[in-house]
Amino acid sequence: MRSFYHDQMTRHLATDGAPSMSGTKQGLIGLLKADTSYSDFLPVHCIIYREHLAAKYFQYPHIMQIVLKIVNFIRSSAKTHRQFKSFIEDMNNYELSNDVSWYCLVRWLSISNVLGSFFELLDPIKQFMEEKGKSFPELSEPQWLLDLAFFIDVIQYLQTLNKSLKGKKKLISDLAQTVFSFHNKLKLFTKDLQTKTFAHFKCLKKISESFPDIPMKTEEYMNKMSGLAEEINHRFNDLRSLKPSFSFLENPFAVDVVSDGCPISYFITNNKGYSSCRVGVTRTARRRRCCGHT
């Protein structure tokens, strides 16, 4: 493994934050930093994992409790599930989804799919539960519905952020810029709540128009958005110090390297003698050994 890492000229290493990986003494990062023969590198906590942790800050337990009870009632029994799908089909509304999604705790952002289908089928679900003799008064409470709509809107934005961070051939500068852009959007969302225009909260706008006389907890929603922004800022604070390096990677000609110096010159000059030629030769030799050649 040591030979492999040396040959690859690692300049930064992303981990999931587990002690076995990020430990300063016995973790992988600590052991590599203690190795004087190993080239210098920049340890980075996995960006997608950090985004996942920040997203879990935003929770509405009283919403999730009711939604999951209803979804589990519909999906846990094959007979009830079949009856629910038939109930939706009998409505002859082809614009509606024909089912509700399961919720997976491990993939927490899957709640966006659950809430999305639940909100779309809100009226049919209410009728179906009444026919089954299951009482859920929350489905008729305006304030609960407002909280549900607000929760759905924000969760869908978080899922969009999560998807935009995934994919191949993305530089760390691209991922960081995506996170910073979303952090700035939260300020716009907060302003939208303050003015009550709801241009970026389509579900909340729909429910608020259905209950125009119900006072909305705008202050609470704004505090939730501010808390989410603080959580993201805390989780990704270390990436802000790397912005000069990101700017150089995105557009080297925009950086005055004469006056300010090259932001990544340290990693260029301190390569411990591992040239690209050696990397290519080592890779070729490794492939030949794997194929049985000498």
Descriptive notes:
The chain is mostly helical and 294 residues long. It contains 16 helices and 2 strands. It has helices at residues 2-8, 19-22, 28-34, 47-55, 61-76, 78-90, 111-120, 122-131, 142-164, 172-195, 202-210, 218-235, 237-240, 243-250, 265-269, 276-290; strands at residues 12-15, 42-45. A two-stranded parallel ribbon has the order 1-2. Helix 7 packs across helix 9 and helix 10 (172-195) packs antiparallel against helix 12 (218-235).
* Secondary structure tally, helices: 16
* Poorly predicted regions: 1-5, 266-294
Radius of gyration in whole Å, from Cα?
26 Å
| Topology, number of strands | 2
Report the end-to-end length measured between terminal Cα atoms. Answer: 21 Å
Main β-sheet description: 2 strands, parallel
Helix content: 55-70%
Q: What are the secondary-structure elements, in order, as H or E?
A: HEHHEHHHHHHHHHHHHH
Strands of the largest sheet, in order across it?
A: 1-2
| General shape | elongated
Estimate the mean pLDDT confidence.
78
Instruction: Tell me the strand percentage band.
Output: under 5%
